[in-house]
Design goal:
Bound molecules: zinc ion
Oligomer: single chain
Strand content: 25-35%
Structural class: alpha+beta
Order of helices and strands: HHEHEEEHHHHHHHEEEEEEE
Largest sheet: 5 strands, antiparallel
Number of helices: 10
Radius of gyration: 20 Å
Length: 308
């Protein structure tokens, strides 16, 4: 009974917390309900919510879970956009949490991390991590196969990014890259996870699935690529994966999105668009290009968050 109460208290805290994204809330609940044996999430802390870190850790311990917390690092948000300048400001700290059902899980993770830091034994460490996070065997196999050389030979630039976008939309509840869009194991997991969230935290399930749209202008900032020693692995590009920034604030924030496009746009191009948020992703419908901001200034380091 004690354990059940501790779990329910953790669920309530996570659902109403301000420091976790909706996707990370989903991940913590899947982990705590024992559908997943391990997970990795990020908590954002600002001066308003300092106590959340302490409360989260206390509640995890009460449930008997073990975890590793990273050192806090700063994160930035866009403060304002004026003229040709996108002004970023440090607004808080983020902490990465690796969560485990027990010490055995933590030891598997440490073995994986040890190999990953040394960039050794790609296949072995992928199997360790894949088992720990309950990924389907077919997806672990494909992940091991996907070296830069394999990607270059089997996928074009556009198809590679299209697959990533399609996976996010088709399997919003899973935490790995599916081997292919038709992967049965991933579909089964996605349904299992969705049903579990619906049962345990229906309000979170509703919020995660809710579609919210707004009209804005997007400013084309940087372009993504897969590179080795600073050079693209693709000899030719059949598309462009841009980071675009919303010129208008929505819910008080200027969001940054990934936009995959067959059309090439110069940096600073303004695109009139309708953006729809759903799950952890955004659907972008470009209406038209409408001018270019010359000499765009947007200096900061993009934060790269790993999937678990
Ligand atoms: Zn698969």
């Amino acid at each position: 009974m004690f354990k059940k109460e501790a779990l329910e208290s953790l669920y309530d805290f996570v659902v109403s917390s301000r420091g976790f994204s909706l996707k990370d809330k989903v991940k913590i609940i899947l982990f705590a309900s024992q559908v997943k044996r391990a997970s990795s999430v990020v908590m954002r802390i600002n001066s308003r919510d300092l106590e959340e870190k302490f409360t989260f850790e206390k509640k995890l311990k009460k449930c008997g879970f073990v975890f590793l917390a990273s050192k806090p690092r700063s994160y930035e948000e866009i403060e304002k956009i004026s003229g040709n300048e996108i002004k970023w400001d440090i607004v808080g700290l983020w902490v990465n949490y690796d969560l485990f059902k027990n010490k055995r899980g933590m030891n598997s993770f440490l073995a994986y991390r040890h190999l990953a830091l040394k960039k050794q034994e790609h296949a072995r460490r992928s199997i360790i991590a894949g088992r720990l996070y309950d990924y389907p065997k077919c997806c672990i196999k494909q992940y091991i196969r996907e070296t830069p050389d394999w990607l270059k030979e089997n996928l074009s630039y556009y198809r590679l990014y299209k697959k990533l976008h399609d996976s996010d939309k088709k399997f919003p509840f899973i935490c790995h890259e599916p081997c292919m869009i038709g992967c049965k194991g991933s579909r089964k997991l996605d349904m299992l996870y969705s049903n579990m969230i619906k049962k345990i935290a229906p309000e979170l399930w509703d919020a995660y699935r809710r579609k919210v749209s707004y009209d804005t202008e997007l400013i084309v900032d940087s372009e993504s690529d897969i590179t080795i020693h600073g050079k693209s692995i693709f000899d030719q590009k059949d598309g462009h994966e841009y980071v675009v920034i919303a010129r208008h604030a929505f819910n008080g924030k200027h969001y940054a999105y990934n936009l995959l496009s067959k059309t090439a746009y110069a940096r600073g191009t303004i695109l009139k668009a309708r953006v729809t948020h759903q799950y952890n992703t955004a659907y972008i419908k470009i209406k038209k290009a409408d001018g270019v901001i010359k000499n765009l200034i947007s200096e900061h380091e993009y934060e790269v968050l790993k999937k678990d």
